[in-house]
Amino acid sequence: MKRMIVFLVVISAAAFTAKAGGYVTNTNQNVAFLRNPAQNAVIGVQGAYFNPAGIGFMDNGWHLAFDVQSALQRRYTTSTYEPLKYGVDNEGRGYKKYTGKSFVPALPHLSLAFKHDNLFASFHFGVVSGGGKAKYDQGLGSFEAPVAMIPALINNLAGTRMVTGYDADINLTGEQYNFAGQLNIGYKIDSHWSVSAGVRLNYISNYYVGSLRNIQLQYAGQMLPAANVLGAAVSAISRGLIPTEAAVGMVGGLVSDKNLDAHQKDIAWTPVLSVDYKTGKFNFSGRYEFNTKVRLKNDTKANTTGISQFDDGKEVAADIPG
After folding, report:
1. Residue 289: which pLDDT band, with cuts at 50, 70 and 90?
2. Which of 39, 235, 298, 312 could be a cystine partner for 244, CB 3.0 to 4.6 Å?
3. Phi first, then psi: what are they for 93, rounded to 5°?
4. Which helix (H) or strand (E) holds 225?
5. Which run of H or E residues covers position 231?
């Protein structure tokens, strides 16, 4: 009986796992970045994002830049986990490669600057992190690993190779957008030094839609619903004290379909300081973006994963580091 209790606890913990990705800064905030990624000391209108203090060395008047970029990307993730060898499509390998497809048809960027003598100001709008949908038709390793663990766990506790494989329908689609507008005001101190200060307003919006369905285990050469096989295993481990039919009812919820449909959003502020030193043909600049406090609030339509991170109405800390 003690072995059976341990078995049920571990299966419960393995029911479903999901993890949201962190923020990755999009540095291509102007099409000029595609020709030369070294933009952080640029003196030009694109400095509205890259080097706000450098605007002070531009000519007087208005300066404008607008561009739209497209992005097509495939992301490959390889997970190494010995129980993956039980997957009916994994051909006995303890590792698996997952492919994510991402397509962004239009990423707009706007840079605007104005200079009058020693005073200047600039504005930038763009998607400074995220910016697209990544679709994993086979999920990720963190989704599949708990399912892969079930055959190994059953076999170890039963003392025999009772389950020889598993299969499940797993998918995950994630979207992350940070639409940001940045306003800077600066002063050109002399012919060498220029400084600016500003703030960026971030509207952060994340969507996560995923599911883990139709979990099956291979038993006696047949693919059967996981609840039926688990019920038989519990009955066998209890040495018949728990009838198979009753055991199926006990464990059915542990391997039932899991669904997630969550939208997270927040509005956050990022202070930005910039300094530029110019001498002859050389230019040196520095920009510091302060830590951004982000508290994402969940608007969740479905969450049967058991992961409280996605519960409706819950706030999740997701600060953007300085």
Report:
1. very high
2. 235
3. -90, 140
4. strand 222-225
5. helix 226-237
Give whole-number Cα distances, 81 to 141, 145, 168, in Å: 9, 7, 17
Distance CA 90, CA 97 (A): 10
Distance CA 8, CA 227 (A): 12
- How many whole angstroms separate alpha carbon 247 and alpha carbon 12? 14
Q: Are 189 and 57 in contact (CB under 8 A)?
A: no
What are 202's two structure tokens? 């971030």
How is residue 55 annotated by DSSP? Answer: G
| Distance of alpha carbon 201 from alpha carbon 67, whole angstroms | 20
Give dist(CA 251, CA 167) in Å, integer: 18
Specify whether the CB–CB gap between 146 and 86 falls below 8 A.
no
Task: Count the alpha carbons within 13 Å of 197 in the hemisphere toward its beta carbon.
Answer: 1
Name residue 61's amino acid: G
- List of residues 6+ apart from 281 with CB closer than 8 A: none
Q: Which two tokens stand for residue 26?
A: 């999009």
Query: How many CB atoms sit inside 10 A of residue 108's CB?
Result: 12
pLDDT digits 0-9 by tens, 37-46: 889 999 999 9
Q: Is 79 helix (H, G, I), strand (E, B) or coil?
A: strand
| Rounded (5°) CA angle 311-314-317 | 120
295-303 and 258-279 beta bridge pairing: antiparallel
- What torsion, rounded to 10 degrees, do the Cα atoms 232, 236, 240, 246 define? -30
Residues contacting residue 220 through CB under 8 Å, at least 6 positions apart: none
Q: Report CA dihedral (294, 300, 305, 308) to the nearest 10 degrees.
A: 40
In degrees and rounded to multiples of 5, residue 15 shows phi and psi of -60, -40
| C-beta separation of 26 from 127 below 8 A | yes
CA distance 42 to 38: 8
